[in-house]
Amino acid sequence: MRRSRIIGCGSYLPERVLTNTELATSVDTSDEWIKERTGIESRRIAADGEMTSDLALKAAQGALTDAGLDAQSIDMIILATSTPDETFPATATVVQSRLGMTGGMAFDIQAVCSGFVYAMSVADNFIKAGQVKTALVIGAETFSRILDWTDRSTCILFGDGAGAVVLSGEDTEDENSPGILSCHLHSDGQYHDLLYVDGGVSSTGSIGYLKMSGRDVFKHAVEKMAAAMREALDAQGMSAKDVDWFVPHQANRRIINSTARKLGISSENVIITIDRHANTSAASIPLALAEGRADQRIKGGDIVLLEALGGGFTWGSCILRW
Questions:
Q1: pLDDT tens digits, one per residue of 118-174
Q2: Can you give the pLDDT at residue 21?
Q3: Could you give the CA distance from residue 53 to residue 56 in angstroms, rounded to a whole number?
Q4: Is residue 269 flagged as an active site residue?
Q5: What's the topology of domain 2-171?
Q6: Is 9 a catalytic residue?
Q7: CB distance 165 to 286 below 8 Å
Q8: Any idea where the domains of the chain sit in the sequence?
Q9: What's domain 179-321's superfamily in CATH?
């Protein structure tokens, strides 16, 4: 069988740190209020003129360096983002050009906060089908550009950043070999109005701002993400006790805690970055993975469980052996 193994991780966060205290000077909120309800203490904000492709490029370069590869070794780039540089072309092709990669293919995928899980699944399927050997999967967002900074119910929640992994296809007969074990994707468009941006090319001709019904999203997030995680564990004949690291989408600390508790996963086995990054949408999982690899919490042979839910709704899970 062929498995898609993570052989490199990279990340990038913009230099500007926006703390809760600073945010409270422009909107009716407080550091205590934000931390109590979300677990967020600060977030990063892209500089003027700093685009999603800039963030993605730096994360990609870090992942390639970690993998010990150059850009010409990559067969495919998939960039998960809801905040592309332009309507077209795909921001992935901008990254491809700036990396100096002249072959292969590059494209964007849009599943909002679930984007990285979706992109991992797509790359895994290309690798298993034998169409590519090595893939660069990126999650990158400049969500600060689609926020109404006068709306405290949304502007406190999000930040900018990018994370990336390099996947390599490896043939093996060992069921305990490293790599993606399975991915499980879902969507249900009836929940559109609970989390969306009120603008678009063919609707308003404008970018628009993020709109969210926070209480309803919280309820569905815990329920649907827990179900997707169980689905992944059941597919591998595993239980929560087999999970070494739970790497969730960093949307809200209370959502993360509730989902882990629902599955019976100890807080000691959860990688958390939301306190410093806020919700970076498709970038949140690869940012957390890169941190877990850099500080050596994630080790060879560990079972790692990823999950996310985003607007649409889209949601899904991915289980892998490091």
A1: 999 999 999 999 999 999 999 999 999 999 999 999 999 999 999 999 999 999 999
A2: 98
A3: 5
A4: no
A5: Peroxisomal Thiolase; Chain A, domain 1 (3.40.47)
A6: no
A7: yes
A8: 2-171, 179-321
A9: Thiolase/Chalcone synthase (3.40.47.10)
